[in-house]
């Protein structure tokens, strides 16, 4: 730090930055831990394969966002002249100030679907749409995304991570057991060799 900023050795922000950088030395300690290495190896194998699942999630959210824009676009606004927004009075949607969670444009729709994907108060989202549409069939939109996005795709993500982690754990234990077996076999070989040499020396001395 002194090489790049020779005149700022008394700069408080630079001192804080250097102190924070010292914490990075803990990575060397974590790298020596077996369980942490298994986690890193799991992420290293999962991330390259995750692009297919992430692409699937993106297309699913894109498709449902377009459907939501066609079905619910313009219904939820903070415009006082919008008579439909008054239907949200007294609902949890209004109490939690979820006005930004709407399908008025593509990004707002993806924001709503991301909240549904992580199961973040999705019943309140559905009740808000139900209140402005006045149709109970609007729940099927949220139910369909929950089935395809959460029940199917997210479970595939979790299952793939767990499967990769278990395989890494088994390979790590197998490698350790193989090393122990090799060390035991080598020690036995050395012991047998030593005994054979001792027997040969005794036999030779007995002859003479």
Provide structural commentary:
This protein has 208 residues and is mainly α. It has two domains: 1-32; 35-207, no CATH class. It is built from seven helices and no strands. It has helices at 12-22, 26-31, 34-72, 92-95, 106-117, 122-133, 139-207. Helix 3 packs across helix 5. The termini are far apart. It is a multi-pass membrane protein. This is Ion transport domain-containing protein. It is found in: Membrane. It comes from Leptocylindrus danicus.
Summarize it:
With 208 residues, the protein is mostly helical. The chain contains seven helices and no strands. Helix 3 crosses helix 5 and helix 3 (34-72) runs antiparallel to helix 7 (139-207).
What global shape is seen?
A: extended
> What kind of sheet is the major sheet?
none
Q: Say what oligomer this is.
A: single chain
Annotation field: number of helices: 7
Order of helices and strands: HHHHHHH
Compute the average pLDDT.
77
How large a portion of the residues is in β-strands, by DSSP E? under 5%
The beta-strand count equals 0
Please indicate the count of domains. 2
Rg, Å, rounded: 32 Å
Task: Provide the helix percentage.
Answer: over 70%
User: Structural class, please?
Assistant: mainly alpha
Low-pLDDT residue spans: 204-208
End-to-end C-alpha gap: 77 Å
Keywords: Calcium, Ion channel, Ion transport, Membrane, Repeat, Transmembrane, Transmembrane helix, Transport
Pfam families: Ion_trans
GO molecular function, one term: voltage-gated calcium channel activity
Main location: membrane
